[in-house]
What we know:
Blueprint: H1 5-25, E1 31-35, E2 47-50, E3 53-57, H2 61-76, H3 84-97, H4 102-113, H5 119-132, H6 137-159, H7 166-194, H8 199-212, H9 217-233, H10 238-260, H11 262-265, H12 269-275, H13 278-289, H14 296-327, H15 332-359, H16 427-440, H17 444-461
Parallel strand pairs: 1-3
Antiparallel strand pairs: 2-3
Helix pairs in contact: 1-2, 1-3, 2-3, 3-4, 3-5, 5-6, 6-7, 6-8, 7-8, 8-10, 9-10, 10-14, 10-15, 14-15, 15-17, 16-17
InterPro entries: Prenyl_trans_a
Organism: Channa argus
Protein name: Protein prenyltransferase alpha subunit repeat-containing protein 1
Amino acid sequence: MAETEEEVDVLVQRVVKDITNAFKRNPNIDECGVIPCPEARYNRSPIVLVENKLGVESWCVKFLLPYVHNKLLLYRQRKHWLDREALMDITCTLLLLNPDFTTAWNVRKELLQSGVLHPEKDLYLGKLALSKFPKSPETWIHRRMLDKSTKQQQQQQHYGETEQAGAERSQQLSDQLARTLHQEMKVCSDAACRYPSNYNAWSHRIWVLQHMAKGNIKVFHDELSSMRLWVSMHVSDHSGFHYRQFLLKELSTELSQTSACIPTIMTSPQHQSSTVPSSCSHNHSHTQANGELPGAEAAEDERQLGFHTVFQLFHEEMELCSDLIQSFPGHETLWSHRRHVFYLWHNLRKEHQQHCSINGGIMSGHPKDSDLCLPDGDAQSCAVRGESVNGQRQASEPMEVDGASLPEPCDSKRLKRGVLLPGPPALPSEHSFVSGVLDRCSNPEQRRFALAYKKWLDTVIGQQP
């Protein structure tokens, strides 16, 4: 083992070069870590590359980390000069061992802005760092900066092109956006599986949807469906359920806005493809083909249609929550999620009732709980909920927002006499659910959470007008 300062310098320089060569030999490395090894037993490199896994023997970390750390600080203090290649190698080594060192990310940010470093390389480096440190806040912050700058560059390139190439470029941007979304969702999922209740990973996932898929109902719908299996396997992960609450709230807002302004949206085919499901376009054209003009009655029908679609989402979420509570008793996260979903639905229903009362007439007053039903043609669409963890309902693939789940506007008048689903989330049904849980409960924690939920229903929901 090296002892003198000169020997340490030679050793560390060789290790840094070995890490760089490992990435050159295998550009598909997908995970890195430290191999427990108290001392060097063989006269060989401490860098181990097996298939797509990169490992650093622990005995050399105590030499390697201080060396690259001091080199970078001396460079920032203008006391030591490093060329660009050396900067990239040192910062890469340092961030794989300590991704929360902000100075290293700032140096790489300067290299990105100067055009020396490609954003894809930093996204790849961040992914590797998260495989070892999945909660690293500095890595997530740097990743958001990369995503934002990449999107801005793509938009600037698109604006600078001619109209003739605009259509092809728009399709390319759409494909790139889809790939970026898929990549970011995959990184967030891997990090969430490696670290329970990984707030930083879930916050990044929300940020990505807000900045790259805002208004895209299909993306949000697919996320809500594909996350059913994940939360069913992580019933104590509050961050995962908070993500579902975010999706429900965004979908409720977007569906309400879309149904309220469909005639305006349809004037822009490009906006229609990115924000409105294809079935909406078909339904609107069908209405125009019959010679019907979008008037006050049609607008109200569209609003009712959007509300009933939102009701179906909340109905499925409450079913999932009931199934998980009964299958996995004693998890406070599930009861907290149910409380939030019911409160969100309660407020949404109150707003809808107030709108119906003010506008007065198309639905003749505000709907009662028993009036909330789906059209005859939409009864089969409940099957998209899939199978659950106990054999009832659980989605295995992302759910498509198509004609099977959105009734036609021409059939919206049948909402009042449609096929009734099981009762919507309401105070009596919630009391019945809690009573059933308490009757069959043998888990003391489950009983405590059920009683607390019942008390919340009486004191918060029951006291509201």
